[in-house]
Amino acid sequence: MWNGRLQGPELREAFLLCMELIDRFSLTRWLADDRLMESISPADLQWSLEVYVPRVARTSLLRMARLPSQFENNNEAVEVMIDKGQDHVVHLIHRTFTSEAEAMAWLMEPV
After folding, report:
1. Spatial distance between the Cα atoms of 44 and 7, rounded to a whole number of angstroms
2. Which superkingdom does the taxonomy of this entry point to (predicted)?
3. What is the pLDDT of residues 46-100, one digit of tens each?
4. Chain mean pLDDT for the chain
5. Exposed/middle/buried for 108, CB within 10 Å: 0-12, 13-18, 19+?
6. pLDDT band at 45 (very low <50, low <70, confident <90, very high)
């Protein structure tokens, strides 16, 4: 769960640590709990589009559930990442939920 505003090196490190976990354990499902994540700076959004999004597209992930942020600026930036991700993603299905229980139920369904 994100809590607050990460930016610059801290945000990039957090994203890369997530990637490391996905790669190390060949994860196929991910719950992104962004409810407390604040805005993403334009520079971090650009880095995410150039580095993070293409890397996520090449992982073992098959499903990603997201609990959206309460901060509209964050949601706008994440929507840009999701839209751009469509250029790269072949097998990853992404859905947004308002309930953690519903997100987990969907993640655990057979793929």
Report:
1. 7
2. Bacteria
3. 999 999 998 988 899 999 999 999 999 989 999 998 888 777 766 889 999 999 9
4. 90
5. exposed
6. very high
Which residues make Cβ contacts (< 8 Å) with residue 66, sequence separation at least 6? Answer: 31, 32, 34, 78, 94, 95, 96, 97, 103
3-state per-residue secondary structure call for 28-90: CEEEEECCEECCCCHHHHHHHHHHHHHHHHCCCCCEEEEECCCCHHHHHHHHHHHHHHCCCCC
Integer Cα distance of 44 and 53 in angstroms: 12
The answer to whether 103 touches 67, Cβ cutoff 8 Å, is yes
Q: Which helix (H) or strand (E) holds 100?
A: helix 100-108
pTM of the complete model: 0.84
How many angstroms separate the CA atoms of 13 and 99, rounded? 27
CB distance 19 to 59 below 8 Å:
yes
Say how far apart CA 28 and CA 90 lie, in whole Å: 14
